Amino acid sequence: MTDTRICGFICSLFRRGLHHEMRGLSNYCLSCCANTLLQTLSATWEVGDVLERWDAAGVREDRGNVPLKLKRVLAAMKSDRPQHVPHEDFLCCLDRNCVRLNVQHDADEVFLSILNLMQQQMDDKALALEIKDLYKISVETHLRCLNCTSVQTHTSYLLSLPLHIKEDHHNSLEDCISSFLAEQELTGINCCFCAQCGTKTRSKQGLKLLSLPRILCVHLKRFRNSRGFTRKLNCRVAFPETFDFSEIVKERFSPDFAQNECTYTLYAVVVHSGSAVCGHYTAYVRDRVNQRWHYADDSHIERASWQDVQRIFGEDSRCTAYMLMYRRGPQEERQQPELSG
């Protein structure tokens, strides 16, 4: 082997070690939103594992089948080839499912669209359900009439946790979650119908957690709509690398909830920079093997640290965290000593 080839071989090994399991994605027709979500989905190896078990050989080649295209692009993102991943087919597939090219999108809306399209388009419904269950947050909503004290309950589920942010305030993830689950009084035009009273009455509404998912997706609601105008809140929202959900809202768990399964570790962050009308998406993603942080900006990938991630808490910059991906799991999977990489 010549000196030039040896040098090239060593450089390629270095690049692979530096950007382990991270492949750049070219910006194709304003695709930064989809690119960023693909990076987080690639880091959510549980989704890729389910798609690998899906025998798509019997699926008719369909340019509009999102799970089929996603299966292929996630497999390509795992390869060690140095060039960028060809993902135009996946983007065009989203376009055929009304997630249009050349249009700015909301990352949380596109994320939920991808999950819903997988449920609709996978022919193996058992595997489709496995993917949904990875993100499924089961909740019980209770509505207590303040007139007769009767209580109505309803069970449902969420695929991401939508958290309200207080404007001009130093928010924390813990405070936002507690606020989301706290009881709210419904009065005036928000009064609800009480079957026992036979009319709309003042009431209090609250949530109780029935189960938490393996993957906890948190949506920090940074956009406000008022009189047809949308603006972005860049206020501070601090979030930890690891937290125990049961310690945040002990009283909001169902009595049957297994509270020994509530510790979560952050592994991906969707970042929004710019304004509500002209923005750009990037991602911080942690490597599965060595637990080091990397920053993905379309085709550009670079090493990062927990200190870099903390800079997107907000307030001093328009580059802010918008979605957080946490993983629940046993201690050995989180490799705690190397969390800050």
UniProtKB/TrEMBL annotation:
One of its GO terms (molecular function) is cysteine-type deubiquitinase activity. PROSITE patterns: USP_2 (PS00973), USP_3 (PS50235). One of its GO terms (biological process) is protein deubiquitination. Gene3D superfamilies: Cysteine proteinases. It comes from the Eukaryota. Residues 23-329 form the USP domain. InterPro entries: Papain-like_cys_pep_sf (IPR038765), Peptidase_C19 (IPR050164), Peptidase_C19_UCH (IPR001394), USP (IPR028889), USP_CS (IPR018200). It holds the Pfam family UCH. One of its GO terms (cellular component) is nucleus. This is Ubiquitin specific peptidase 18.
